[in-house]
Amino acid sequence: MEKTPFIEIRGLRKVYKLGKERVVALENINLTIERGEICCILGTSGSGKSTLLNMMAGLERPTKGQVLYSGKDVSRFDERRWALFRQKNIGFVFQSYNLMTSLSGIENVAMPLMFRGMDKDRRTRIAKEALREVGLGNRMKHRPSQMSGGQQQRVGIARAFVTKPKIVFADEPTGNLDTKTTTEVMELMVNKSRENNQTFILVTHDNGIARYADRIVTIVDGKIVGDEKNESIARTREQIAADKAAAAGQQAKEEQAPAAADAGAANTSTGGAE
Amino acid sequence: MKIFDQISMCLQNLSRRKVRTTLTTMGVVVGTCAIVVMISLGVGMQESLEAMLAQMGDLTKIEIYNYSGGRGDSGNEVPNLDDSVIEQIAAYDHVEVVTPIVQAEWGKVKIRCGDYEYNDSIYGVYPEALEKLGYELSEGKFPTGKEKEIAVLFGENAPYSFNDTKNPDVWFSPYDNEDPPVDIFNDTFTISVGREDEEDKSGKDPEKHDMVITGRLVGDWNKGYETVYGVFLPIDKLYELYKEYDSYNGISSSSSTAFNPRKINYDHAYVKVTDMDYVDEVETKIKDLGYDTYSMETMRKPLQEQVRNTMLLLGGLGGISLLVAAMGITNTMVMSIYERTREIGIMKVLGCVIGDIRTIFLMEAGLIGFGGGVIGVMLSFIISAVLNILGGGGSVGGMMGGGYYDGSGMATQLSVIPPWLVALALVFSTLIGLISGFSPANRAVKISALEAIKHE
Description:
The complex is a heterodimer of chains A (274) and B (456).
Chain A: E1 7-18, E2 21-33, E3 38-43, H1 49-56, E4 64-69, E5 72-73, H2 79-89, E6 90-93, H3 105-115, H4 120-133, H5 149-161, E7 167-171, H6 179-195, E8 199-204, H7 207-210, E9 215-220, E10 223-229, H8 237-250, H9 257-273
Parallel strand pairs in A: 3-8, 3-9, 6-7, 7-8
Antiparallel strand pairs in A: 1-2, 1-4, 4-5, 9-10
Chain B: H1 3-16, H2 18-56, E1 61-65, H3 83-90, E2 95-100, E3 102-103, E4 109-113, E5 116-118, E6 122-125, E7 137-140, E8 150-154, E9 162-164, E10 190-193, E11 209-217, H4 226-229, E12 231-234, H5 235-248, E13 268-273, H6 279-289, E14 292-295, H7 297-349, H8 354-391, H9 396-400, H10 419-446, H11 449-454
């Protein structure tokens, strides 16, 4: 059955000019990503993976080629249309969290809703709910500076998912986190995406967290060199679940554990439907 | 984004950097204060100038002098100032009323009440013009010009200017609480022509005409001597009396001294203009006809120009400080954008449209300007009050609005802040804020979201 792909990248090319030198960051990228897919773009630093993400999110303009969402070419959108497009369809999780330092957790999470013009009471309610879902029910009024890295990233995740965007981008979301927190954060994001059938695009250099994805696209020197389903990589999703169960056992004392287990259940059910 | 959210975000941003916001606002406060106080001094000067001039004479009156003898300065023929010319002048824009005002030649007209004879200036005017000249009645009413008898209007103290013909050395003064020798509303007055030779009592006396006194004016030295001691009668009646005088005294119409109604050439006329602002315009037109004129305008104009120049100078000084404040705002906003680059980037990535970002920054700058303006205006009122107390010599009279010019307390004030100045200051300071914030706001908008979120 032929249908319009959810995200389609056609012949994307990006060339940077550094003085007189021309650096090709991306060369003829062609990629299709389906709705609800959890896709990892894996590459070393300088491979062009972040550039690809930036162009998919409208933060950079491609030198050549197109990005289509549901068949609609967005690569030539102006800044305003991109802003509105991101407002409606895209959530972001950053490596360095990028929270507003002067705002509380709630206000940070409510910000994308504010940009949409939602009134304050409603967006505060939604933001509180979103923070509770990421396990920060008790730290909602804290400023980012009063939170740990993991907590900040949870706020970041709540902010990315609060608008129920169709696509969530995460650029090295665990780069600043320790291993344990990395697991929690990754699971949180993956589970949330599955719950809402959201497309989740993860950009990383870390093979370890790539395993959370359904699909791994490997980029080297601006070219796609590998595009594999996760099954062909050592671990299956079931194995991840088993790992997580073991991890949950270890961390039984942690307050986050029940939430993670709940999310795990949701994870398997979504997996089954697929 | 909702406007309310924009405002609250802008307030949040400003309150986050309290010290800087306060200092920047203070710059605007000082600038606004400087402008408002300086201009208020100018306004104060202008008001006291106007009060002073009003004291010296009617600011809307032009007097026409026709002493050129038919020849203007340039040697051109000047038309006789007769009724048709008066009519022509009356038709000019902004002219309220025009009347000739001719002082009766001495001895030709006599006003009598029993043995008492009026012994001061008699003026021939258009009776219907008197009210419009701005004269005020203390009693009675203005003549309408339609009375059967000769209708006469008295100046305030004219009843005191009667002397007993049998005892001509006794004078009556209005300032000694005496009653005037005549009662203008109850005694009977007559008007007649005089004898050419006062000593010659031969022949029959000139005919006594009935006259009616319609009212008495409030004397006002600013409006002229005539309102105090003069009497007014219709100019046509005055000229009829002139003719009678000629025939009574046997002066032939061919004589050079004889009155010739066909060659009327008033030597003096009053023009009342609707507003002070038009005096110059009307006066120029009359001058162009070839007549000499006099009005307070000739005095007012250079004085006013001087005041205006002083005001501009003072305002300019204030303007410089506001300009410095404007640079302060720009500086603050640029710094603020530099510090908030990352935030701007985050906002953009999260889907804040650039218009909203620009609005927030402009609002912040505008608010600094407006806030500074409001505080500045309030402070100006305080400074102005202090100046007035000090400048008024600290006298209670000055504070109570007494001072030199009774009835117009404003005139003694050194510094006056009219409402328009308040409005101007607020609009100007807000505008300065917005203009200063404009380029920083555009810079904020142009920041690349990608660069910004990498910015530390």
